[in-house]
Amino acid sequence: MLASASVSSSALGRLSTEGAFAVLARARDLEAMGRRLVHLEVGEPDFDTPEHIKRAGIAAIEANLTHYSPSAGIAELRDAVAVYAARFRGLEPISRDEVVISPGLKTLIWNVMASLLDPGDEVIYADPAYPSYSNGAAYLQARALPVRLSESANYRLDLDDLAAKISDRTKLLILNFPHNPTGGVLTRADLEAIAQQAIKHDVIVLSDEIYCRNVYDDAFVSIASLPGMRERTIVLDGFSKAYAMTGWRLAYGVMPAAIARNVILMNNNTFSCTATFVQHAGIAALQGPDEPVQAMIAEFRRRREAMVAGLNSLPGITCVKPQGAFYAFPNVTQITNDDKNLAAFLLEEANVAAIGGSCFGEVGRGHMRFSYANSLENIKIAIERMREALPRFPGGTS
Ligand SMILES: Cc1ncc(COP(=O)(O)O)c(C=O)c1O
Q1: What is the pLDDT of residue 16?
Q2: Which residue, 35, 82, 93, 219, is most buried by CB atoms nearer than 10 A?
Q3: Distance 84 CA to ligand 1 centre (A)
Q4: 387 C-alpha to center of ligand 1: Å?
Q5: Pocket test for ligand 1, best of 110, 112, 206, 210 (most atoms within 8 A of CB)
Q6: Whose CA is nearest to atom 13 of ligand 1?
């Protein structure tokens, strides 16, 4: 048998597993034992990929577009992204050499961080946050300075905390709004204040906009569209959430060409290229009819109402209304601070899979993340199962 030291690097020891995938693995085990669960843990639209996108992918396979392609992405998709991203975000024209394609956004976040950060570089991101940012920073030995989101302000960034942490030593500021796990959205005034700080301290901004189509109240604003920001912003977006394409693995970034060249070098050294026929499906997504996306957004809006009302009807749980993405992030501190224990209880005793908020950072402690990318019927079933089970939570409300 191998000694454990021989199978893992010290860098690997700094990585953790994304909470959603850990809960999903346990949920699948329970299902294999015959349990019928409601899945509110994974951030994945339950809708099918729209028909015209599937057809484009199938046609590309039939046309034998099944070979290697450039590490930056195929020219046709890079051009389609350039047109789409400039129009959707109100940006000046984007050139092909500013666009990078990747197999999913997680990969691109990684390659961007790996191409920019040296050990000791300071990187700022929100707490709570999607775990890729903290994992990337830890692996690269960058110095992470998480900035609080404030629940009372609907999970917008605490700008005073940001001002206290950003400095000339900051290399990278990571934003992700609409936000995973809270559903928070920044106002234009927030973005202007953040842009001012980024310019003052000459900071590069990574704006993870994968939920940009999932806004329910106000129109989406990209920080890249603010004066002086395009030249220092890396806009990242993907097809997983907007087009229900999680399993296709497809995403893009728009960034200054000098940064793009380095990220393409990372792509070349990690995955070589993105599946060619998948990129053709991506062109159909960007250029085809938008109605399927709008129909999904309308359904998510209805589910948001059901999820928030349902959670607020449970004793000991309070939930602010998320403005975007498809997550609710209720406060459960009246029941417990040990959110992971509560998540385990709900999985085992209520057959409801959800994630403890502390999986996303310390500020998430005492909260839970419920994805409402599930049917209205299943959301209602989950709420009733929790209503029944919660009084049995050890030390919980009765
Ligand atoms: C904020 C955020 N960024 C990036 C991703 C990665 O998406 P994908 O790798 O499916 O493109 C996710 C997925 O949950 C996410 O929530």
Answers
A1: 87
A2: 82
A3: 20
A4: 31
A5: 210
A6: 43
Atom 7 of ligand 1, residue of closest alpha carbon: 105
Distances (CA, A) of 313 to 51, 91, 319: 38, 43, 10
Ligand 1 centre distance from Cα of residue 125 (Å): 15
This prediction has a pTM of 0.96
pLDDT at 366: 98
* Token pair recorded at residue 270: 């990690």
pLDDT of residue 21: 80
Q: pLDDT tens across 154-206, in order? A: 999 999 999 999 999 999 999 999 999 999 999 999 999 999 999 999 999 99
316 CA → ligand 1 middle, Å: 30
Low-confidence ranges of the chain (pLDDT < 50): 397-398
| Residue of 245, 244, 262 whose CA lies nearest to 253 | 262
> Long-range contacts: 328-331, Cβ < 8 Å, 24+?
328/183, 328/304, 328/369, 328/370, 328/372, 329/128, 329/155, 329/181, 329/182, 329/183, 329/357, 329/364, 329/367, 329/368, 329/369, 329/370, 330/367, 330/368, 330/370, 331/151, 331/366, 331/367
- Compute the distance between CA of residue 163 and CA of residue 161 in angstroms, rounded to an integer: 5
Any ligand 1 atom below 6 A from CB of 182: no
Does ligand 1 lie within 6 Å of residue 327's CB atom? no
**5-25 pLDDT, tens digit each:** 678 899 999 998 877 788 888
